[in-house]
Amino acid sequence: MQGTLQLQWADPPRASPGRVQAPPQLDAWLDMGPGRRVALDVTQAKRAAGDLYALANRRVAVSYAMRADIAASSKVMSAASALPSISAIVPTDRLPQRALTMGADGRVMASAPVLGATRWITLMCKFADITAEQKPRSFFQEQYGNAPGQLGHYWSEVSYGQINLAGSSAHGWYTLPKPRAAYLADVNGKQKAQLSELFADCANAADSEVDFAGIQGVNLMFNGELDGNAWGGGACTTLDGAYVCTRVTWSPPWSFANLAPLAHEMGHGYGLPHSNNSDGDGDTYDNPWDVMSDAWRNATSDAAYGLLPKHPNMYQRERLGWLPASRKRVIDAGNRETHEFVLDAGSVLKTSNTQLVVLALPSQPDPYKTVIYTLEARRRTGTYESKLAGDAVIIHKLEDYGIAYSVDRDTPAANFSSNEGSMLKVGGRWNTPDELHWVEVMSATEQGFVVRVGPRPRSMSSPAPALVRPASVAASSSPGVRPAAPTPSVPPAPVIRSAANLHRRACGALPVLLRRAPLCALLER
Taking the model in full, what pTM does it have? Predict the structure, then answer.
């Protein structure tokens, strides 16, 4: 089957103190045209695509195979119990050559670059039974501005000018034809917002006065709660008389009141998955270094736009074609040389220095499962990064089909990676688990750090101070031969060793508890 792959991520609000954070959700759909949508098993889709996130909002072909279902009672396979299983998902659209090659780090370069003008339209829609209008149209229009703290400025900064929001605009409020409850369905005992229906009805209400030609995304704002989540990703509907698949976000009031969660959902629209940390729990929102994980903690704020978004991690920016190739350095898995270089912070817009280091590990038979580690520098500066936990080199582990996990050197790992263990500061050292790569932060610069990467050094892991030897011993070329004492100009006076003197010297070399007469007498001999 062929169609457009739509991924939709659900993100709950920040948990109240003492409450457990609600888990995220990910839905996958194959849209083949009006009224023709097929739900895809996410686990199967991840395995079949290799890098499912790189295919978001793109034309793909999905291939199925039949797998036998073993009945629990008889353990006998039969043709009647065969179930369809996704065996492959491949892109069918045309891509730049760079997206079809293997990267120097051993991973498949499957992402399509996102470049140039990405025009978004904001549609503000009211449920038929809710009259509140939390923000005026001017608020949403100004969100797209190019001043610091606005979305146009933010996306230009994090993409190093590779994308912009030129021509973006806001429209509404429009009244939906149904009350809020009509857009909720019971799925496995829980209410779930019907995203396609919300998109279709909201767009239809605005269609007569909004020009959707050439848009790259739609931000939907609702005046009431959805299903407890904000959503981001993609969807399809009829716009200006044509069936269109595009990037879409769905935001309740708590989401659009802050720019940070809105930018998080737009990141999903651009195809960015969640990031995480390395504590091993089920909470994906515990990496405050990354807007695609924890958008709330360590965030700067603005009087008009609430909490502002932090930057996404450098690896995801490079995947979308935003990082110039000259600012990426790959250290091969078989590296035996020591490399020392300046690693500038990701917030530095123009530089000739490195901003992303990839530590390659041995390639796996399935290149999508090849694990790599990355290094990036973060500094507390600028509109979006000044509230970070510290100035440091941040380490990420890339696995699970492209998810970035911040590495915590503490044991056990902290619940939130804003601790010292997540920061490699000056003098800090770390090595990959297989000890192929050893990393040390040598010094700080005005815009980042000097970093050394190489094979295991002999003294890097020793916390002991340097051994200081007497000059006469240090000058010796052979540790087994004692140097001859210099001839004094005046003969030394003879040393008279009395029994009492010997006794005091012998016992004085012992700890107090061991100064017993029999032991002292033995030492005098």
Answer: 0.83
